[in-house]
Amino acid sequence: MEPDCGDDAAPAKVNLYLDILARRADGYHEIETVFVPLPEPADRVRVSAADADGIHLTCSAPELPADRRNLAWRAAEVFAESAKRPPRWRIAIEKRIPVSAGLGGGSSDAAAVLRALNRLHGDPLDREALHAAARSLGADVPFFLDPRPSLAHGIGEILSPIACPVIPALVIVNPGFPLSTRWAYGHCRPGQAPGRLEALLAALAAADLDGLCANAWNGFEDVAFWKFPVLELVIEFLHVCGCRAAHLCGSGPTLYGVCVSKEQAEHAAREAVERFGPRFRAWACAQTGGWQG
Ligand code: ATP
Question: Residue 102 falls within a domain, yes or no?
Answer without folding.
Answer: yes
